[in-house]
């Protein structure tokens, strides 16, 4: 049996704690806050104009990050066992790692779409026509593509508000992507920091010490 003063037990406890708490807690809280922010902002953007595409209102990225955070909270409720000795603990850890990777990809895509739309918005020339805002990249080109934003009575307020929302989406999704990347790194390090190709170091050291004594 392991005592409280056992250094091995202390190392195992420290390996799954961070700042005095179990290490997924900080990431789960950050992911939940960022996921809710991205989701709410995405739905607000969808309410500006019905013409905005799903890729331009990345509430889907926020929902994925929220799901990741919920899995992190579930992992906190599971009793810790060293080396993933329980099937439930291993499954939840694997789900958290994979979903964090999926959240990372989704947030990076959201940043890319928002940045592309923002760059287009900075070059638009817009006019209000029949309760819609019609924008062009090149007004001198008669065959140029026209971007139409429905349900917009004022192009000036729409473009300024949409630019602000796109900037916020880029910042929030970038932070969320970094948090998901950090979560993946910590999960990977926590799983393999005391292993080398699946073999512990201390049994080899103990065996070597016994051989030397003989």
Automatic annotation (TrEMBL):
Transmembrane segment boundaries: 25-48, 60-82, 94-115, 166-188
Domain of life: Eukaryota
InterPro entries the UniProt entry points to: CD20-like, Sarcospan
Intracellular or extracellular location(s): Membrane
Topology with respect to the bilayer: Multi-pass membrane protein
Sorted UniProt keywords: Membrane, Transmembrane, Transmembrane helix
Gene Ontology CC annotations of this record: dystrophin-associated glycoprotein complex; sarcolemma
PANTHER family tied to this protein: SARCOSPAN (PTHR15260:SF1)
Protein name: Sarcospan
Species per Swiss-Prot/TrEMBL record: Nipponia nippon
């Amino acid at each position: 049996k392991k005592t409280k003063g056992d250094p091995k037990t202390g190392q195992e406890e420290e390996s799954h704690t961070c700042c005095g708490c179990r290490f997924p807690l900080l990431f789960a809280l950050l992911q939940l806050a960022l996921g809710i922010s991205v989701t709410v902002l995405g739905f607000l953007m969808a309410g500006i104009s019905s013409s905005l595409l799903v890729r331009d209102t990345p509430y889907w990225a926020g929902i994925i990050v929220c799901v990741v955070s919920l899995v992190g909270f579930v992992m906190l409720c599971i009793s810790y066992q060293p080396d993933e000795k329980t099937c439930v603990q291993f499954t939840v850890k694997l789900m958290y790692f994979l979903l964090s990777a999926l959240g990372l990809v989704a947030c990076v895509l959201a940043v890319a779409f928002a940045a592309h739309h923002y760059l287009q918005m900075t070059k638009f020339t817009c006019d209000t026509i029949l309760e819609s805002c019609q924008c062009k990249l090149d007004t001198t080109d008669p065959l140029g593509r026209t971007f139409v934003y429905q349900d917009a009575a004022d192009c000036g307020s729409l473009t300024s508000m949409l630019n602000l929302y796109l900037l916020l989406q880029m910042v929030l999704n970038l932070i969320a992507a970094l948090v998901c990347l950090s979560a993946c790194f910590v999960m990977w390090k926590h799983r393999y920091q005391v292993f080398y190709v699946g073999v512990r170091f201390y049994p080899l050291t103990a065996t070597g010490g016994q051989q030397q004594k003989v």
